Amino acid sequence: MKGARFVGEGRIAIERVAPPQPGKGEVLLRVTNCALCGSDLRPLRSGWPVTPGHEILGRVDQPGHAWHGRRALVYIPVFCGHCEDCRAGNTHVCRNATDLMGWQRDGGYAEALAVPEQCLLPVPDDIPDRLAPLLLDTIGTTAHGLRLAQKVVPRGEALVLGAGPIGLGALLVLRGLGYAPIFVVEPGDYRARFAESLGATRLKPANAAARRFPLVVEASGKDPARQMAFEVVAPNGAIVQFGESDAWTITENKAIRRKDFSILRSFYFPIGDHAANIDLLRAHRAEYERLVDDQAGFDGLQDLFDAFKRGEKLKPLFVP
Ligand SMILES: [Zn+2]
Ligand SMILES: [Zn+2]
Questions:
Q1: What distance in Å separates the CA atoms of residue 131 and residue 56, rounded to the nearest whole number?
Q2: Alpha-carbon span 79 to 115, nearest angstrom
């Protein structure tokens, strides 16, 4: 079987790998597609010990199993289902989940993988293959974080910092939740123009820095954007932080110190949100269609990642 490995310094090797051997309580999933994610860029730089890829759609190939022949998305945290967090519905923060699919266990940049049964998410027939992976990070992660933010700032203006896949996903969810007007700061023209086509107003960093916003969505993971989020959030406002990085450096200045505000850091989403996330996809399907702007197989995966890294692609797919 073929699988892709991140070997470091941005290089991808396509290798012959051993076919997955599903253990007890697991099924074999043949990969239909796997969406590229900004969080892949860190392991792409450093190299990674398992097959990466964590926004996976596939078809179960496990004769005799209840899921055999069905399409399924892969929920990333391998949750236990019985701890206090899982029982409260917060499967994404399960205290016993040490493994994340595509991070500690082999993921979706391959022909197939083994998936624990509890991580299989059903895909209704009206959702096409190419849109299904958006239900994970692009919609699931952003909608969960913004549902948390709604409790603090239920309406009004919002600023999105970074219009990569997460920022654009957040923009669509913000619109769906009724926030307006929505502003965006994004250095790349391709992504910024796309955000504008979704109804956002592009601001230069200096212009955004001169204003205050009740809700700030930090979706870049870059220190300057994090610094800016702390400074431009309005008193009693909220920051939702999605971007990730190895470390961050913030200078606590007067703009930060003399203000009440909330910071919401959120990770992924509770598995019970899946049905509501499907409704969000259905409600804005035409816009989500436009996010999926390219695809490649094993042969084109390196070039696709290079273009994605340069900000020239929004949410491309690996299709083995
Ligand atoms: Zn992702
Ligand atoms: Zn648990």
A1: 11
A2: 12
Ligand 1 center to residue 284 CA distance, Å?
20
Distance 297 CA to ligand 2 centre (A): 35
Query: Tens place of pLDDT for every residue, the chain, 320 residues?
Result: 999 999 999 999 999 999 999 999 999 999 999 999 999 999 999 999 999 999 999 999 999 999 999 999 999 999 999 999 999 999 999 999 999 999 999 999 999 999 999 999 999 999 999 999 999 999 999 999 999 999 999 999 999 999 999 999 999 999 999 999 999 999 999 999 999 999 999 999 999 999 999 999 999 989 999 999 999 999 999 999 997 777 889 999 999 999 999 999 999 999 999 999 999 999 999 999 999 999 999 999 999 999 999 999 999 999 99
Question: Could you tell me the distance, in angstroms and rounded to a whole number, from the CA of residue 268 to the centre of ligand 1?
Answer: 9
State the ligand closest to the CA atom of 42: 1
Quick one: CATH architecture of 2-130+292-318? Alpha-Beta Complex (3.90)
CATH class as words, domain 139-265: alpha beta
Residue range(s) occupied by CATH 3.40.50.720 in the chain: 139-265
